[in-house]
Amino acid sequence: QDPATRMKMEKNQEKRVYMLVLTGGPCGGKTTGQARLSTFFENLGWKVFRVPEAASILLSGGVKFSELTRDEALQFQENLVRTMLQLENTYYELAKGHIKKENSRGCLIICDRGIMDAGAYILKEDWEKLLTANAWNTVELRDNRYNQIIHMVSAANGAEDFYSVEGHNCRSEDVGLARELDYKAAAAWVGHPYFDVIDNSTDFETKIKRMISSVCQKVGIDTGDRLLTTSKKLKFHVLGPLPPDSAFPPFQDFDVEHHYLQSTSGRVQARLRKRGQKGHWSYIHTIRRPHPNGQYVEVKTQMTARDYNNLLNQADDAHFKIIKTRRCFLVNNQYFQLDIYKEPCHTRCLGLMLLETYTSLEGKAPEDCLPKFLNISKEVTGDPNYSMFNLSLREEWDRTQKFCRSLHGKKNMNDMCSANSRANEDACNECQHQGK
What is the residue-wise DSSP string for 88-123? Predict the structure, then answer.
């Protein structure tokens, strides 16, 4: 095939609707996984729709499943399935319309649980009765409806120390029940041709990367080495001026705003991120807290514009709002994000550009893969002068006690800062996350 024909075929392959079910047991990482997966595909230029969990919507209205009779439970599950079908169909029709637009790429639909999950919580004979009454069949509901199923194994099965029901209004399961529900949820999807189970054999960050990598492999996206378990984040300082757009490979630009929030505990970080294109926004709320074993547990949650605006009232006045243009692009199968800081900001951020990537390459090999069209001055990975927490501080660095000199989590929090003040320790906890 000639290059033009091949490029046309590749473009047509990208213009597809890919429907994914993200399911799993309690405290398996679905919420964070959905947020991370959405961001990853949006950075590639895909449109992402997120179908909300229908069961949570209905249960949050006062329904207590344990109080229902067998007949009531069956009726509830039937209405639940109908609700799920309508929600999914609505997003699917939107997705089909989107990919017909000029210059659009693929569209990913992430379903927070799928139809078969509804059958995991009632008796098998009741589920079969429900299917017969509605002329539904398992092949259509399970195999033909979804492109891929990802099951995120509950922390209750293999990562018990991290299992928690804190912050979940509809969740009260102990470890034993969580394991049972996890097994039932997985068993409901056995038989789907593309069913991936993401267990707890690695730490949580690697678990999320394995999940994203699994989706990319099925979709046919070459992620290079940025999702390997040995990948690490690298950050580079880029000198201006910014090259013309024509110097870049195909890219996606996003408007990004970050707000650090006030925290009642120096050991817990809360922040908001607003990210969008052409006036359409997504909102992420991140909570990051240390765990006794030395790791950090981080939960990213998609939120509504209303909730985002309400939380803005808790913004920390010690920090500027960070405003960036984030340019995402691929060079030689290596994924890059170029953050271009915008005004209003502290003078230290004027004209600042930082390039980030993930790689498993060692030594000088990563530098050989950097974009040649950018004027990269130096690597600044781990340099506190380039952490977003420090860059956003309103006070001058030589006057504030909040400047954080360590960007690496440690079990002994007193070892993290150059100063012994509690304020400085709090700042270090806050800046563990470097601007993502």
Answer: HHHHHHHHHHHHTSTT---EEEEEES-HHHHGGGS-
